[in-house]
């Protein structure tokens, strides 16, 4: 069923609420993360000190990280280069190509990798279609770039339906 592909494995308030020790216990060795409204606001060019600290904690835990973003090369590289993060831009999520490229680049398996993002129709759907453990986070900003606004409307419809059917175990912020 299509809606099951939209259901994240986990839902947390932010990247800072992800239990890195639990990921390690679950044999997770790598993270594929979205950039815009997952790590920082879509219009913030650089990482915040909190995001830098979170990435350092992943590194200290021995986890590899690749940013997979639908945004353009200039935007993604400007964010990732100072942090020495691998990245894939213009990813066309939810298509498989970028997710598979990321696991190849990190030399890990899908089972050893978690996908983190703020959108059901790109991050969660793309990760779930390939069998990744997916974590949906609340968007960092309440505003979005032009192309994301349509997805947000569709997400609200899907999440409302899932909530009415008792498929979700979390409460969304209005």
TrEMBL record:
- Kindly state which keywords UniProt assigns to this record, in alphabetical order: Hydrolase
One molecular function GO term is: phosphatidylglycerophosphatase activity
Tell me the Pfam families matching this sequence.
Hydrolase
Q: Which Gene3D superfamilies match?
A: HAD superfamily/HAD-like (3.40.50.1000)
Q: Which InterPro entries match?
A: HAD-like_sf (IPR036412), HAD-SF_hydro_IA (IPR006439), HAD-SF_hydro_IIIA (IPR006549), HAD_sf (IPR023214), PGPP1/Gep4 (IPR010021), S-2-haloacid_dehalogenase (IPR051540)
Question: What is the annotated signal peptide range for this record?
Answer: none
Supply the name of the protein.
YqeG family HAD IIIA-type phosphatase
Q: Which organism is it from?
A: Brevibacillus gelatini
